[in-house]
Automatic annotation (TrEMBL):
Pfam families named among the record's database cross-references: Bac_luciferase (PF00296)
UniProt name for this protein: NtaA/DmoA family FMN-dependent monooxygenase
Keywords for this protein: Flavoprotein, FMN, Monooxygenase, Oxidoreductase
Organism: Streptomyces chartreusis
InterPro entries found in the cross-reference section: Diverse_substr_monoxygenases, Luciferase-like_dom, Luciferase-like_sf, NTA_MOA
Amino acid sequence: MKFIAITFARTAERAKFDFLFLAEGLRLREQGGHIYDLDVVGRPDTFTVLAALAAVTEHLGLTGTINSTFNEPYEVARQFASLDHLSGGRSAWNVVTSWDAFTGENFRRGGFLPQDERYSRAKEFLATAGELFDSWHGDEIIADQETGTFLRDAKAGAFVHTGQHFDIHGQFNVPRSPQGRPVVFQAGDSEEGREFAASSADAIFSRYATLNDGQAFYTDVKRRLAKYGRRPDQLLILPAAAFALADTDAEAEELAREVRRQQVSGATALKHLEFVWNRDLSAYDPEGPLPDIDPDVGDDHISQGRAQVRMYRDPIATAREWRELAAANKWSIRDLVINTGNRQNFVGSPATLATTINDFVQADASDGFILVPHITPTGLDEFADKVVPLLQERGVFRTEYEGTTLRDHLGLAHPDEVRAERAAS
């Protein structure tokens, strides 16, 4: 694991990418009461991994997914402030919520919160952490010449917060970090998620892979910023993007097909179908037709801890749509999952990928992309060697890092500058 993470991070930095992103799961997912077989390697602690990567990189941003439902502001703020110091101002926080009691069983408080309360807690969590980050702001540092230590005013780090979800007071024990606060990412696509991003985030993920859908999402989220006194350039739209790269477009298309077939085995296809049917489908032939029975729409779900379950809000309608697609295209269960599941956003030669990526950005469908290679740790190598130079030749991607912090890389202002701008307006 150490070799994989270091190799991946160093390749990203060699390509002059903005940041490396780590997802996180607080519990191993289950299917039918058994651990999902693709999860057996687990999810190591985010801060430990990012701290280790800070030691072997100099410029690359370090983004970690940290949950706001089952953590507390003081400990998370302390960890991010420490990481920001350790990395020289390269930390970022992907703020997420947990939606199910299954995950909550790992925690003392347990249970889960309704969606409106999850976002209410997340927003207050982030605001409270911001108060902690800012609690050292503006205090004088005084050097003690005799002992070589540094002293601050006794009020440095003092904080008091009283709200719906948190009632805390004390003294934050990590001084102001290079970025002031970590860069904040948000991943929600719901109405609440988009508002949360518009009010509080520096970047939001997008799941929209087509140009038209990407433009619609981009326009919707950016237009929300004005009511919070923010400019469009103060929130970045960053879709996740898988890719298949080869010397020619035809070879890339063939590679994309082969990758998808390797990613979706027969067993994986049946597991995916169970997300919608909410039934044990292990007796079905993945190379055969879809089940003729309807999904079970009960509250108890066969799949636990998977975000995909929430994507299918109307299982009956989804099953009907999939049956029609399978019949029209003569698809088996496996064929259907291959053709309707996550697919490569960009497929083609280096020139095709460079053109398509730039077209999306120029057409206001995104401000950039979070690349998701289909293999690690070497999945970024070919992109770094063949596509990045073409983007650099076009003048649309950096040839060298021009700042020291992640905010510099992303073109985001320091929080103090944002505050001063708002105060002056």
